Amino acid sequence: MKRAVAIALTASLAGCTVGPNYRQPPVLSGAVAPPVLAGGREAAYDGVAPLPPHWWQLYDDPMLNDLEEKALARNTDLRVALASLEQAQAALRGVQLQRTPQTSLAIEPSYGQASGDSKGSSVALKPGAVYEAMGTISYDLDLFGKLRRSIEASKADVGAAQAALDLARVNVAAQTAGAYASVCSAGLRIAVTHRSIAIAQQSLDVTQRRFDAGIAGINDVVRARTLLRQTAATLPALITQQRSGLYMLATLTGDAPEAFPAAVATCSSPPLIRKPVPIGDGAALLARRPDVRQAERKLAAAVAAIGVSTASLYPSISLGGSIGTIATSLPDIVSNRAFQWNVGPLVTWNIPNLGPARAQVAQSNAAARGALASFDGTVLTALRETETSLTTLARELDTERQLADARDDAATANANTARLYAGGIGEFLDTLDAERTLIEAENALASTTAQVSQDQIALFMALGGGWQDSPAVIGTSLTQVTDKPH
Asked: Highest taxon of the source (predicted)?
């Protein structure tokens, strides 16, 4: 009867797992209404259609697609994040193996003198060799769930590491598109500058001919030449921007800066989507953003750690045994009289000194509360970044439309004054002013178009897309720094 009660008590304890059970935050579990993306009411966005996994394909640009594919496979930041994930996975396997029987084997040959009193001898023993071999096996019953909570925490750590890898993918995809847009935007502004130089050169030529004919004064020539030189002076900075973008693209795709993609250097049209951008809804945003998922997994790990700490308040019971042999001569090590063995439970409990364990429980609870606050902050940041990106892009599109109309008006005015001046009717200052206005309008429009391209990419980054269905990251091998393969 007593044996049956003991077995039943042990079985009931085996199912006990101390510490709180984790529940997913309401904002992710659907227990509360999902947030509404206010920016989705703009005509520039589609709040119904979901964001496609590979959002850069919306640009229908094969060159950009190739760059993204290469960057997502070879980027060094992704290789670091992949190694961190593999490290977390290995740690999880190590914790899981603690649920299995633990074994050890020790072989200790030695030479010395044993105590005569300990052997029951009235005289000192002679020194000699001693050969000892001992094998042990133990199994932690995990009565209060310390190992189970440790495995739960390690699984959450793996989830957080996976989310970190996905977050790195989001950043790399956006950075690659941004660098490509920077190169193409610089190419656009270089082309606009060359057109402006051509306009200024044409004005200088006309003014020079009029001066040679005695119609215009030398100051008109100087002013026209000044405008030409000022316009040409903007080229070096644009070329630097273009080169910097090319170098960035090379490093993002895992190449040395000088190995930048030469074909991209000819791009002069930044990637733009001239239709409503699919953004989905607030629930899809939070489920998609890897940083939200990473914060949630860190919260889960912190809650599990409370259980690990709480289990330290209770006794730890292991079942184990050992078998070994001790002999004073090597042939006797396998004799029956040399063998020894034992089996039984091992109970470890720090009672009554539970103060450190209770302090650890309090520490774990505080860490979990901090992780919850961090999760809430991450959710709010995700919503803020998305709303800011939606508003910024909408207003930049309004600015671009206004500047396009202004550029058209400036082009009309410049053409009219140029005809009048060439015909000897118009005033030079009017012509010069019209040219300057057109050049400024062209550059302002080009700059805003470039900003619209970057704002669209920033929006996609805020939406958290780009990590799904990504190509496998090429891992890091140690063959370059070790003499053996690993």
From this structure: Bacteria
Backbone dihedral angles phi then psi of residue 255, each to the nearest 5 degrees: -115, 165
- Alpha-carbon gap, residue 130 to 333, rounded angstroms: 9
| CA 314 – CA 309 distance, rounded (Å) | 10
Residue 316 scores a pLDDT above 90:
no
Q: Which residue in the block uniquely carries the two structure tokens 């912190």?
A: 302
Position 1 in a domain: no
Q: Are the CB atoms for 161 and 433 separated by under 8 Å? A: no
Boundary of a domain, candidates 348, 371, 406: 348
Residue 341: beta bridge partners? 323
CA torsion sign, 74 to 78 to 79 to 82? negative
Of 203, 108, 221, 193, the closest CA to residue 417 belongs to: 203
The token duo for 400 is 């671009």
CA separation for the pair 298, 290 (Å, rounded): 12
The range of the structural domain enclosing residue 332 comes to: 102-141+315-348
Q: What is this structure's pTM?
A: 0.87
pLDDT band at 326 (very low <50, low <70, confident <90, very high): confident
Among 20, 3, 1, 76, which Cα is nearest to 299's? 20
The pair of structure tokens assigned to 436 is: 């300057």
Whole-angstrom distance, CA of residue 403 vs CA of residue 406: 5
**Dist CA 458 CA 38 (whole Å):** 17
Cis, peptide link before residue 53, omega less than 30° from 0 = no
Instruction: Tell me the CATH number at 399.
Output: 1.20.1600.10
Q: What is the pLDDT of residues 130-183, one digit of tens each?
A: 778 788 888 888 889 999 999 999 999 999 999 999 999 999 999 999 999 999
CA–CA separation, 266 and 97 (whole Å): 57
Strand, helix or coil for residue 150: helix
Query: How far, CA to CA in Å, does 175 sit from each of 76, 278, 379?
Result: 13, 20, 22
- Residue 343: how many other CB atoms lie within 10 Å: 10
Task: Tokens 């650890």: give the residue.
Answer: 360
CB atoms within 10 A of CB 260: 21
Q: Which helix (H) or strand (E) holds 368?
A: helix 355-422
Strand partners, 277: 45
Per DSSP, 119 falls in state G
> Into how many domains does the chain fold?
2
Identify any residues that bridge with 139 across adjacent strands, giving them in sequence order.
319
Q: Which of 270, 294, 273, 283 is nearest to 386 (CA)?
A: 283
What CATH number has the domain bearing residue 116?
Answer: 2.20.200.10
Domain finish residue from 324, 348, 372 = 348
Residue 74 lies in a domain: yes
